[in-house]
Write a structure and sequence with these properties.
The protein is of the alpha+beta class. Helix content is 15%, strand content 33%. A hairpin with a 5-residue loop joins strand 29 and strand 30. It binds 4-nitrophenyl beta-D-galactopyranoside (147). The site of 4-nitrophenyl beta-D-galactopyranoside has 12 residues, from loops.
Length: 640
């Protein structure tokens, strides 16, 4: 076999200098929230649920996150779902709702050193008469911190309003409220929006003293590019800690090059000392927005199927080799040969002042490069362990591989780096890669039913994914015993994005011909709906859903509706039946058989229509805005 010698490569010298200055590293993390993206993980069976959590949080095993940023629920949609509030109304308080407390506990159980960061996307509408930047909102955050304390969780960082700008005096009020209520150690991040906050922090000392870190979203460009992470001079000269407090929004595998660039270049270009991937896990059904974004895919609690993404392994190339509190070595961080296309490297020094790790990414390189590394400035000259991830490979066996151990000679060693890879050179040990895998995909089998009786009050019914409002287990009303699902938001929320009626979805998008039935009880004048064949859901412009609905009002007015993501709602049939009233139970059913849709109220067929718009999809519940209706005895039976 004839071989051709590669053209001679000039070696590039890199000095890893422990005497270099540099900022303190705060960590790499990910976001649960903004929103709903962790919903189905909670419903996963064991042992798969624990395996996924291990891959996300266990040190030396997977993504091994340093920071978990969790949504502070607001009963309103925050991208891929709504997360429940700890205070649906002013007089209400329940510290056990939703899945973020559970997730933070699970993260802490695996890594007691993990840092926690809370941020709100929206809020219940009683707050500030609909004004987020209010004293009510400060108190809402204080009560959330009180809940965290009840859970034994100490919160390290707190933000304001996700991507909705900032209010200087509100941040100052928040700081003094934290200080005055025993939360002086909770650091404020501003403003989880763009860099404009840096100008005000730079010019207003009172604002500056309230804020610990400037956290900006997508500072290297939205989603896949992550190429240039330069920051405005006001941010640099503010002297504040700078973070990429949200980044990512990319597929759990396909986002890996952007993650690799973003973590390194955020520091090199912008001196940003933390990187947060949005979101932590894609644990939603495939019809919802961003169904594969995250570090892992876990959309099917009914099958237990999950997949750990390349994003997780690229993140591990930094997280497993460093810790918050380590120091960047500025003189040993930059672009290979000064050329961005060759790739980048950052070096960090342990708090023991001896161990170090250098993370190299060659995402944009075209050919192999030879590096001559020199270790100096008091750093360990022990064996250098080399780990690498081939980001161009689709084979998980090529991710986070321990590829070499090098003994430096006279402080020096060489390394050839291939294009499209991440390498970590380290004197530390303890890294590892979990190998357990989950079962194959499967559908959620019909018939499916839920009496909603087997849950504690305040929890969410299995597989029921809130989109707007909050659907929660309560003791049934209307003289019925047992538990029911109730829509808990009695007012229009302070939204993060498009407002829609409260609704929640459940099931497999492949369901086609079936009958869905449920009992329903209105609590006020208004309507409730049974939804079927639900598919795509818009979050940012109309809040619309591809679906059919049977809507019933307290007056007895009913309709069969066809809605879509453009926000269009078409009435397919309508009529009036005996008034349903309030606090009385009724039964609803919708049957889908080919193009025939049949609506039944209290056992009587009220309408039958033909429509071919939606061939299949999930079931769901909806209410008019502010209607706290109850639902019971869900049943979905297969049809033909
Ligand atoms: C972010 C939100 O903070 C997340 O909750 C989630 O919605 C995520 C989805 O990509 O997006 O909001 C952004 C939306 C658009 C841009 C940046 C952030 N953008 O176009 O730069």
């Amino acid at each position: 076999v004839a071989t051709t010698a590669a053209p001679a490569q000039a070696a590039t010298s890199i000095t890893i200098n422990g005497a270099s200055g540099g900022r303190t590293f705060d960590g790499v993390g990910a976001i649960s929230g903004g929103g709903g993206n962790s919903r189905l993980l909670f419903d996963y069976p064991e042992p798969q649920r624990g395996q996924i959590l291990d891959y996300l949080f266990k040190p030396g095993y997977g993504a091994s996150l340093h920071i978990l940023k969790a949504e502070i629920g607001g009963d309103t949609n925050s991208t891929s779902g709504a997360e429940p509030s700890h205070q649906h109304t002013r007089s209400d308080l329940n510290c056990d709702r939703g899945y973020e407390w559970w997730l933070m506990e699970q993260a802490k159980a695996r890594n007691p050193g993990i840092k926690l960061y809370g941020l709100a996307w929206g809020a219940p509408g009683w707050i500030g008469g609909g004004n987020f930047w209010s004293a009510d909102m400060v108190n809402y955050l204080l009560s959330w911190l009180g809940c965290a304390k009840q859970h034994g969780l100490s919160i390290d960082y707190l933000g304001g309003w996700n991507e909705r700008g900032y209010n200087i005096s509100w941040y100052e009020q928040l700081r003094s409220a934290l200080d005055g209520n025993g939360y002086g150690n909770v650091k404020i991040v501003a403003a989880d929006s763009d860099w404009s906050v840096a100008n005000d922090i730079n010019s207003n000392p009172a604002f500056a003293s309230a804020v610990s870190a400037i956290g900006t979203h997508y500072p290297c460009g939205y989603r896949s590019s992550q190429s240039n992470c330069s920051v405005p001079s006001a941010a640099t000269s503010s002297g504040k800690t700078l973070w990429a407090s949200e980044n990512g929004s990319d597929d759990y595998n396909g986002g890996a090059p952007a993650v690799a660039r973003g973590i390194n270049r955020g520091y090199i270009d912008g001196r940003m000392t933390a990187y947060f991937n949005w979101p932590v896990v894609a644990s939603i059904t495939p019809n919802l927005p961003y169904p594969t974004m995250g570090l892992a895919l876990a959309p099917q609690p009914w099958s237990g199927h999950y997949a750990i993404g390349k994003n997780a392994w690229v993140m591990a190339q930094t997280s497993q080799f460093t810790a918050p509190g380590w120091h960047y070595l500025d003189a040993s961080s930059g672009y290979i040969g000064g050329n961005r296309n060759n790739g980048s490297y950052v070096s960090l020094k342990s708090t023991n002042n001896s161990d170090y790790s250098t993370v190299i990414e060659t995402m944009d390189a075209a050919s192999p490069q030879t590096l001559n590394l020199n270790v100096t400035g008091g750093l360990s000259t022990k064996t250098v362990h080399v780990w690498s991830t081939d980001v161009t490979s689709g084979n998980p066996a090529d991710y986070l591989v321990h590829t070499a151990d090098i003994t430096p000679s006279g402080g020096g060693f060489g390394l050839t780096v291939q294009p499209g890879r991440v390498y970590t050179l380290t004197t530390t040990t303890g890294q590892g890669k979990g190998t357990v895998t989950g079962p194959a995909q499967g559908t959620l089998k019909l018939p499916y039913s839920d009496s909603f009786d087997g849950y504690a009050a305040g929890t969410e019914a299995r597989y029921l994914m809130d989109w707007q409002g909050a659907f929660e287990e309560v003791g049934c009303g209307g003289g019925r015993s047992g538990r029911c699902v109730r829509q808990m938001s009695p007012q229009k929320p302070i939204t993060w994005d498009a407002l829609s009626d409260p609704h929640a979805l459940l099931g497999d998008v492949s369901w086609s011909n079936y009958t869905v039935s449920s009992d329903v009880m209105l609590e006020q004048a208004g309507y409730a709906e049974l939804i079927g064949r639900a598919g795509a859901q818009d979050y940012s412009s109309t809040g619309g859903l591809n679906a059919y609905h049977l809507r019933v009002s307290d007056t007895g007015a009913w309709s069969v509706l066809n809605s879509n993501t453009n926000g269009t709602v078409t009435t397919l049939a309508r009529g009036t039946t005996t008034a349903l009233g309030t606090n009385r139970w009724h039964s609803l059913a919708l049957t889908f058989s080919g193009t025939t849709i049949t609506a039944v109220i209290d056992g009587a067929t009220v309408g039958s229509v033909n429509d071919r718009t939606w061939a299949g999809g999930q079931i769901g519940y909806a209410t008019s805005q502010g209607e706290t209706a109850q639902f019971d005895n869900l049943s979905i039976t297969p049809g033909s």
